[in-house]
UniProtKB/TrEMBL annotation:
Domain Kinesin motor as annotated: residue spans: 306-626
Localization annotation: Cell junction, Adherens junction; Cytoplasm, Cytoskeleton, Microtubule organizing center, Centrosome; Cytoplasmic vesicle membrane
Gene Ontology terms, MF aspect: ATP binding; microtubule motor activity
One Pfam family of this chain: Kinesin
Record organism: Daubentonia madagascariensis
Biased composition range(s): Basic residues: 675-684
Protein name: Kinesin-like protein
CDD domains: KISc_C_terminal
Disordered: annotated span: 630-684
GO cellular component: adherens junction; centrosome; cytoplasmic vesicle membrane; kinesin complex; microtubule
């Protein structure tokens, strides 16, 4: 009985809502065709209203244009009135001067006969009278000259009067033309206004007719809605029955939910156990694949050859000049990026290297593999070779917007170190040196001009080191950049005819990477040598004199020694003349069997440098044919020395100098002066 009473109340409430719906107008159904047509008619009405607004805007613009032309006409009339007034004043002034001239001429004509008579009658009088006669004659001559001048002025005034008449006729013609234009514009404006008014009335009538049709359709839709409301009562009863069924289902829902949760929890727990077991298996496979990747990667680099040679062609610049000598003589093979073609004296010459980069290419991909080898414990050397002005320093150092090999290599180095930070601990130190006139100098030392020597390590490893070469421990690329900028200020560069900032020395940036596997205790030591060689040059072209000539001679001598070393390695001679030059002696580790070396040969594409380009590419081919053999990995098990433990402590982010013997494991450390440290500290 209670349920029946509740259903009766719900039925009364639904009947009251139905009465309210019948009393209130109902919006047309969304899918009705009449409502869509009504919406279209509303859109068209709004478009017509927009067109009327645009026509009103055009009408206002025409009114403004008519007003402007009216103002211009008034201005022209004022100017014409001013011109006519000036003309009248000028005519009046000229007429007055003409009357004065006529009166003067008449008076002069009236005075001339008595003078002539006096001249005739006093010919026999006294000398005094003769003197008076001569004075009268002079005065008469003066008066005649004045008469002639007045006649000339009269002619000029008549000409001015005639020109003013012509100007008046031109102004009148312009006024007539302006009046005709104004009448034509006024007529056009009236026609446009009339057409706009007709368009507006027609649009309003069409909109009104469409609105009537729309209202009719709305009334028809309303009648249909009322009919539909009458059929809602059976549907309401059906909904009530459905509601009761849902209520019964809701009462039994908590039990069903608890059972479903228990089954889902069991499935999730089982899935988690399976995922954990799979993760352990994947982690084991990952570590095994990581070791295999290292092995395959190093084997791939060894098979490619320990000395890889790539070429990069710099773009043609405005310093190359214009004309036939500045024409491009270098072309590339579209099918093979290891082939480069040179047109030398009208004959094409082709060279095959490991890879050739166009002026807009990047060498980042070639550096990636070598950086990985350095972190794995191998010695790596990257050096740039080529004539002066070929872009070696730009390729190695680059700019802030487009970093060179140095920046890219260091960024990749620290990126790899950061990725392995969870399993490995690394210590990175950096040194910078230059070879100037066969003298090895420390660019980071307190005395950059101090002469250094190259020695063998006392530990019997056969490695070379430089006693007294300053080292800085670094934590990021910015630290290396600060150290390198400090050393760059001490490097020797001068102006020559071939290069405005020609490097007069060989620069070396030495980065040492020491790593230890935290789980196994395995230690590795890798060295990254970034070398910017001074450019070979011809004294006749560079215009070197005095000290520049002596520098060029030492540069060419050291590069010739490098060529001798390459020739000896290529022919597998028993003795390789590394000690003939400080450059080759310092690069002995990089050019022997314990290093992985990349040479970037820089060439100029212009016609005037084809001889130097030909020599550089031939030298690159000879270097590419050298087989040094597989490079050993410098790794051992054991604990770090106390000195190395001290170097790991990141006391501060500023690179700390260490003036110990470079690469010598048994040498101690000394402190650097405070002024140098303050110079290298980052700004706050």
């Amino acid at each position: 009985m209670v349920e029946n009473e509740r259903l009766r109340q719900e039925m009364r409430r639904c009947e009251s809502e139905l009465q309210e719906l019948r009393a209130t107008p109902v919006a047309p159904c969304p899918g009705c065709e009449h409502s869509q047509e009504s919406a279209q008619l509303r859109d068209k009405l709004s478009q017509l209203q927009l067109e009327v607004a645009e026509n009103k805007g055009m009408l206002s613009e025409l009114n403004l244009e008519v007003q402007q032309k009216t103002d211009r006409l008034a201005e022209v009339e004022l100017r014409l009135k001013d011109c006519l007034a000036e003309k009248a004043q000028e005519e009046e002034r000229l007429s007055r001067r003409l009357r004065d001239s006529h009166e003067t001429i008449a008076s002069l004509r009236a005075l001339s006969p008595p003078v002539k008579y006096v001249i005739k009658t006093v010919e026999v009088e006294s000398p005094k009278t003769k003197q008076a006669l001569s004075e009268s004659q002079a005065r008469n001559q003066h008066l005649q000259e004045q008469v002639a001048m007045q006649r000339q002025v009269l002619k000029e005034m008549e000409q001015q009067l005639q020109s003013s008449h012509q100007l008046t006729m031109q102004l009148r013609a312009q006024i007539a033309m302006y009046e005709s234009e104004l009448e034509r514009a006024h007529g056009q404006m009236l026609e446009e206004m009339q057409s706009l008014e007709e368009d507006k009335n027609r649009a309003i009538e069409e909109a009104f007719a469409r609105a009537q049709v729309e209202m009719k359709a709305v009334h028809e839709n309303l009648a249909g809605v009322r009919t539909n409301l009458l059929t809602l009562q059976p549907a309401l009863r059906t909904l009530t029955n459905d509601y009761n069924g849902l209520k019964r289902q809701v009462r039994s829902f908590p039990l069903l939910l608890q059972e479903a949760l228990r089954s889902v929890k069991a499935e999730i727990g089982q899935a988690i156990e399976e995922v954990n077991s799979n993760n352990q298996e994947l982690l084991r496979k990952y570590r095994r694949e990581l070791q295999l990747r290292k092995k395959c990667h190093n084997e791939l680099v060894r098979l490619k050859g320990n000395i890889r040679v790539i070429a990069r062609v710099r773009p043609i610049t405005k310093e190359d000049g214009e004309g036939p000598e500045a024409a491009n003589a270098v072309t590339f093979d579209p099918d093979d990026d290891a082939i480069i073609h040179l047109l030398h004296k009208g004959k094409p010459v082709s060279f095959e290297l490991d890879k050739v980069f166009s002026p807009r290419a990047s060498q980042q991909d070639e550096v990636q593999a070598l950086i990985t080898s350095c972190i794995d414990g191998f010695n790596v050397c990257i050096f740039a070779y080529g004539q002066t002005g070929a872009g070696k320093t730009y390729t190695m150092e680059g700019t802030h917007e487009n970093p060179g090999i140095n920046q890219r290599a260091l960024q990749l180095l620290f990126s790899e170190v950061q990725e392995k930070a969870s399993d490995w601990e690394y210590t990175i130190t950096v040194s910078a040196a230059e070879i100037y006139n066969e003298v090895l100098r420390d660019l980071l030392g307190k005395e950059p001009q101090e002469k250094l020597e190259i020695r063998l390590c006392p530990d019997g490893s056969g490695q070379l080191y430089v006693p007294g070469l300053t080292e800085f421990q670094v934590q990021c690329v910015d630290d290396i950049n600060k150290v390198f900028e400090f050393g760059h200020t001490n490097r020797t560069t001068e102006f020559t005819n071939l290069n405005e900032h020609s490097s007069r020395s060989h620069a070396l940036l030495i980065v040492t990477v020491r790593g230890m596997d935290c789980s196994t205790g395995l230690r590795t030591t890798g060295k990254l040598n970034l070398v910017d060689l001074a450019g070979s040059e011809r004294v006749g072209k560079s215009g070197a004199e005095g000290s520049r000539l002596r520098e060029a001679q030492h540069i060419n001598k050291s590069l010739s020694a490098l060529g001798d070393v390459i020739a000896a390695l290529r022919s597998r001679q028993g003795h390789v003349p590394f000690r003939n030059s400080k450059l080759t002696y310092l690069l002995q580790d990089s050019l022997s069997g314990d290093s992985k070396t990349l040479m970037v040969v820089q060439v100029s594409p212009v016609e005037k440098n084809t001889s130097e380009t030909l020599y550089s590419l031939k030298f690159a081919e000879r270097v590419r044919s050298v087989e040094l053999g597989p490079g050993p990995r410098r790794a051992e098990l054991g604990s770090w020395s106390s000195q190395e433990h001290l170097e790991w402590e990141p006391a501060c982010q500023t690179p700390q100098p260490s003036a110990r013997a470079h690469s010598a494991p048994s040498s101690g450390t000394t402190s650097r002066p405070g002024s140098i440290r303050r110079k290298l500290q980052p700004s706050a």
